[in-house]
Amino acid sequence: MFACASLAEADAAPPPTRAITYATVQQPRLTGYFVGDLLTQRVLLQRDGQTLTPATLPPTGRVNSWFERHRVTVATDGALQHWLVVEYQILNAPPKLTTITLPAWQLTVSSSAGAPAPTLRIPSASINVAPLSLPGSPEQVGTRDLRPDRLPSVIPTAPIRRAIALSASALALTLIAWIGWLVWRNRRAVATQPFARALREMRTLDDHEPGAWQALHRAFDRTAGRVIQSATLPMLFERAPQLAPARAQIEKFFAQSSLLFFGTATANDRPTASLPRTLCADLLRIERRHER
Questions:
Q1: C-alpha span between 24 and 221 (Å, rounded)
Q2: Cα separation of 279 and 214, whole Å?
Q3: What is the pTM of this model?
Q4: Which residues contact 185 (CB under 8 A, 6 or more apart)?
Q5: Per-residue pLDDT of the chain (292 residues; tens, 9 = 90+)
Q6: Helix 247-262 and helix 210-224: axis angle, to 10°?
């Protein structure tokens, strides 16, 4: 009878309680958070060379007035260690810099060898949350203590400055060469192009002087490579077809020039004094366009 009673008492005895031990935890950084930011807490699932398996994963959802457990996963790092990765999101924006507490919690685990494993206690963590709009001075809002996660690498600027100097020098030399070529080209054109030379000669002549008409005649002769008269105008346009658009003005010039030098002009046939200068300027523009 006593043996039966002892067995009944053994069956009715509660299961042994698990030991509680602090887990190895990588807590999130302490500062630099705003409303909506995500932070990660990592719990090591290794102890005494054994891999620990969570009996149940912590549920997602709100854990207090500041945090919501967003996602829970198990990950393996480069050293083949298993971690329980818990991601939280900050729900509220404080009016000033505030220290809030990520609450402590416990994780029930089992050992890979089947041996009883302790319940892991994950400690709480305090972090600073700043308002979206920071009022006051840096000392008042606590941002003077903030530091970047890592210092930016120093960019060597000496090669960049050398490249800029070389590019600027090359650009300056190119501009100087181009301007020099343009000046040389204009001077060469004035010295060699027939209508440019004629217009330069007309600048020292009065509009009524026959010399202006003669200067333009010499320009036609140099363009055609021979003496041009009214009867030989087709040879001019054959040698310089670019002058064809001004054919009517050129024929009028030769007609009026014949009246001026070889005929008796009436009042209605009197040559226009400005015709040589105006016609020479028009032909100079054609001459320059053809040169390009």
A1: 103
A2: 13
A3: 0.42
A4: none
A5: 333 444 344 344 444 556 778 889 999 999 989 999 999 999 999 887 788 888 888 999 999 999 999 999 999 988 889 999 999 999 998 988 899 999 999 998 887 666 666 789 999 999 999 888 755 555 555 556 667 777 778 889 999 999 999 999 999 999 999 999 888 877 776 667 888 888 888 887 776 678 888 888 888 888 888 888 888 888 888 888 888 888 888 888 888 888 888 765 443 445 554 578 888 888 888 888 876 5
A6: 130
